[in-house]
Amino acid sequence: MTQSLFFKEWIKTRWALLVTLLVLAGVIAYTLIAMSTELRVLGAGVVWESLIQKGITHFDDLKYLYLLAGMLLAAVQYAPEMTNKRLKLTLHLPLPEYAIILTMLLFGLLSLTAIFLLTYGAVSVGINSYYPVEIAQWNLAAILPWLWGGLAAYLLTTWICIEPIWRQRLFNGVLALCLLELFYFDELPGAYTSLMPWLAALCLCSIAFIFYSVARFKEGVS
Amino acid sequence: MDAIIQCENITHYYGKRLIYENLNFEVPRGKILGLLGKNGTGKTTIINILNGYLKPRSGVCRLFGETMERLSPRTKAQIGLLIEGHIQHSYFNVVQIEKFYRRFFPRWKRAAYYELLAKLQVAPTQKISAMSCGQRSQVALGLLFAQDPELMILDDFSMGLDPGYRRLFVEYLKEFAAAEEKTVFLTSHIIQDMELLIDDCIILDYGSILLHRPTREILDGFHRFRFYSERPPAAAPARRLWNTEKVGAAWETYSFLSKEEVAQELRAQGVEPLNLVQESLSLEDAFIGMTGKY
Questions:
Q1: A218:B53 CB<8 A
Q2: b or e along A137-151 (b: 16 or more beta carbons within 10 Å of the residue's beta carbon)?
Q3: Segment holding B23, helix H or strand E
Q4: B-chain residues within 8 Å CB-CB of A93?
Q5: What pLDDT, in 10s, does the model give residues A151-209?
Q6: Which residues of A are less than 8 Å from B100 in CB distance?
Q7: What local confidence, expressed as pLDDT, does residue B18 receive?
Q8: Where are the domains of chain B?
Q9: Are the C-beta atoms of B58 and B11 separated by less than 8 Å?
Q10: Which of the four CATH numbers 3.40.50.300, 3.40.50.2300, 3.30.300.30, 3.30.240.20 does domain B3-217 have?
Q11: Which are the contacts of B284, defined by CB distance < 8 A and separation ≥ 6?
């Protein structure tokens, strides 16, 4: 049955997942080419100076892409469920309702994590081939909170989609933006090292928000 | 006879507007029960309450003995649900949707689905979102039959269907229910379809049940009476004469009483009915007789 629910989610989201992967791969490839050109044209000394003295990182273009990826996946996965209240059909499947919702969320989180890890791996391989380990880690550490931000954006957008009342959706949207801001308040690599468990906890809390809105949907709140 | 659906003292409001107060009914196993009512009397509301998608102000509904808010997976597998407008997961094509559902239901009858689908001129790769309302209704019906549930709950099954599809739907449903003592609870705006199908009938009025009787009893016992009179009849006691009104030069009234009893009732109101005529009614006419035209 889990396989069947995964099949349903895959049919809804496959094009969005493919587009997400292609866009991220494209941006990473472009960044690596630009980085290589910069080293060739400006010379390693100048680039190194700006990296070490000014704390500049190379992959800033990815910053909000992970966030958008999470939002896009949640929208394509849950907007069709809320159109014509199709979620009733899904919740009517012969499984416990919490298991249905958790399976759908698991699909989204696994898909996003797979794409994120793949792109993170590509960034890691690419940057390690140009810079020493310390600078590579510096860049990779800067990306890490954005990955968490993407996962949080997925869960919070799901919460907004599943909420049955528009007015409450707007409130959820404002709250979601405030929470997502936490993933982007400091660009200095390593600034989030001690905050990572808290960001993970925030993602877990977002799952509770979703169940609150599912309960409201079940009660027929209007 | 065991009750498959039980609703006890359901009271519900939308805001301050009362929908029902202390609504009570049961649907026994093997019966096809039709819920009739004008727009806004709460037909879809009761279906939402039954399925646990709406919490009433008070009262409880049970399906197979389980309360509506906590249906077990085993019970949900026994209930086939059709949402108003034949809503389905429209991002699937006709093959994908069968593949999706079949793993959930142990008694899945693949042949039943493809038998109905063969009547449609659709390619296996055609998406449900690209189908007409009639085609979607056949997909939804095919999935319900493949599920082989003990109870079907159908919300406005005839919505958007042309007469051919409606008749097909009714014929399949009737055969399905008769074959294995299945229970069906349905609503429809098109009452002439219901007449061919339902054993029992609940007529909803604003706030309460107006009538709950076997359909045959309504068709055999409820009549329209036409008569002429100089004077308008006084208000009759409730449920003896229904919706008495002047139509052209004649008067019309509806009643479960015999012709003689109606004449007596009218005389008791100070009216001498001239040329009193009794007419048989279709279910649709009976519905209008009970609820009024407006």
A1: yes
A2: bbbbbbbbbbbbbbb
A3: strand B17-28
A4: 76, 104
A5: 999 999 999 999 999 999 999 999 999 999 888 876 666 667 777 888 888 888 889 99
A6: 4, 7-8
A7: 87
A8: 3-217, 222-291
A9: yes
A10: 3.40.50.300
A11: B191, B192, B195
